[in-house]
Amino acid sequence: MNxxxxxxxxxxxxxxxxxxxxxxxxxxPVMLIAFGAVVGLMFKANExxxxxxxxxxxxxxxxxxxxDDQLRYVFVSTADEKSxxxxxxxxxxxxxxxxxxxxRNQNFAELQQNSRLVINSKIGxxxxxxxIADINDVIKKEKIKQLGIAETQLNDLDKGFTLKTIxxxxxxxxxxxxxxxxxxxxxxxxxxxxxxxxxxxxxxxxRSVLEEKNNxxxxxxxxxxxxxxxxxxxxxxxxxxxxxxxxxxxxMSVIGALVLNTGFSSIQKNIPGGNEELADKLDVAQIxxxxxxxxxxxxxxxxxxxxxxxxxxxxIFYSSIYAAIGSAVDNETETQQFTLFAIxxxxxxxxxxxxxxxxxxxxxxxxxxxxxxxxxxxxxxxxPFGVPAWQIALSIGLLLGTTIFMIFVAGxxxxxxxxxxxxxxxxxxxxxxxxx
Length: 436
What we know:
Elements: H1 2-16, H2 19-45, E1 50-56, E2 71-76, H3 81-86, E3 96-100, H4 108-114, E4 116-119, H5 125-146, H6 151-157, E5 166-167, E6 173-174, H7 177-214, H8 217-221, H9 227-269, H10 276-281, H11 283-297, H12 300-328, H13 332-353, H14 363-370, H15 375-382, H16 389-417, H17 427-435
Parallel strand pairs: 1-2, 1-3
Antiparallel strand pairs: 3-4, 5-6
């Protein structure tokens, strides 16, 4: 046991003392936010800003087609139709001309058949779709007016219905759409982070084992320690490295949520009552405040506890597999035929968990969070929505037992494979090592 502790300490200190680890741990959240901002700016930069001239022969659409930031309508005279079309080609300030024919005898089918859009260059699908939607809105209003319905009644018809949801299992707390969205986002984030880190750090264990094996350093090491102790020391050392990063990031996230929740709230309280323009500018800040408030309303102690437990057990479980793979092969090329067995269950759990958002308590969510091969990601995906205590306890018990069994199996493979060189281990030989 003392040897395992020494190897764990060495692996941990070797990793956390690196400048790359410190920089990555502190800058990773900032880099992630910056990456999201860059992606958002890329979408923003690629937004279309189209100018469409409208020839409205019926007079029905004038002052009804409303312009916005992405699409601007400019109404022109009917007499200028031919000249506008002839001069359209090569006109960089104009994207197209919308020809809307005269409406005869309220025949909207004929209007649709004879309407056309003449374009200067290719326009985006969203732009064309918006033009069609705007025309449909005008025609819809006209048809309703013909039925004798006033505009105030029409506006009343378009009003949506909101349904307040009270969750009796959460002390009659209101279950808002924003809260559900926050839970879904947190679920996906935790699940994806767990999936990625199990793979990243599991591969790190495998490469460390493979490097020591190829350099023949392991022959010197196991003269002082048992192969099992060396394997467990490596796994636990890298586990503590990953856990350290997570604790730093969780602390930064909670502090950020608290700052948003208190800082923006105090700003809003100091806004003068009549300053509506300034209040509108703080819509983004209000949304950020509501999101942080929804996050802080969650049962964070339970979420953090479940996250850490399932991450640790899941990581040790899969790292044992990766360590066994690293000891059974001679180079990284040969690892590809074995790592598939470790990646497929995790991918099954991750992609299956996306269906949990609509039904977290369904049968698929239950079994994915109970089966040890998928529970490290599936249970973490379910926990923001609330999971019964007995299911959490059952899942932890099964995962703990399976992890201990996997360590035992991996130890048998590691003990034999770590000293073998030049021979490509087959599944049949690995099975013999396990049985022996």
